[in-house]
């Protein structure tokens, strides 16, 4: 049901080769009510590969309950058909447009429910975290990130629409980031219970970069 888009012809530029084959496929979700982007990436050997990507659409003129029901059903089918090992969802941040913020929050909540029903872990990433991971710059433009997605996944063209490209970027970021986070947690052991407000010991450059990206998102 859910198409591969241009991924069937994925060839060309060298892909970054540090995905974790043991992680399984990752489903990225760029939440939205009118357009909810999705993208599935998995590691084949040392290369990340696009499995499927696209957009789930609902009709703006339809009643809100009907739109939410349709999106929920489509997300359930998406998760069942693609059987991802993890979900990466864009973190819902403050937006000036309250209606847009509410729609994004509703779509994000439905994605979380679909994951919970299937017993799939969910991780949230802010837009700037993803930009930092893919382009090396938390302030990178959307076009730069989309071009990196095309290059890394060896796609014949930039994924369209932009919602699908954003979802692929989320999945890619998780595919790279999660093994690093897991390895760090194993190395550090249980986090100490700090009550003095001091930052945790051994804070890495990655921690500082992510904190800076989150600060930009919150500003």
Fill in the CATH topology. Nucleotidyltransferase, domain 5
Identify low-pLDDT runs.
Answer: 4-22, 194-204
Described by the principal axes of the CA atoms, the overall outline is globular
Please give the domain count: 1
**Tally of extended strands?**
5
Can you list the strand order of the major beta sheet?
3-2-1-4-5
| Main sheet attributes: strand count, strand direction, barrel closure | 5 strands, mixed
CATH homologous superfamily designation: Ribonuclease H-like superfamily/Ribonuclease H
Structural notes for this entry:
Helix content is 46%, strand content 16%. With 219 residues, the protein is an alpha/beta fold. It has a single domain, classed as Nucleotidyltransferase, domain 5. A 5-stranded mixed sheet has the order 3-2-1-4-5. Helix 4 packs across helix 5. About 14% of the residues have low confidence.
Quick gist of this model?
With 219 residues, this protein is an alpha/beta fold. It has helices at 64-82, 98-118, 127-135, 142-152, 162-188, 205-218, and strands at 26-30, 35-44, 47-57, 86-90, 122-125. The chain has a single domain, classed as Ribonuclease H-like superfamily/Ribonuclease H (Nucleotidyltransferase, domain 5).
Relevant terms:
single chain; 5-stranded mixed beta sheet; 219 residues; alpha/beta; 6 helices; globular; Nucleotidyltransferase, domain 5
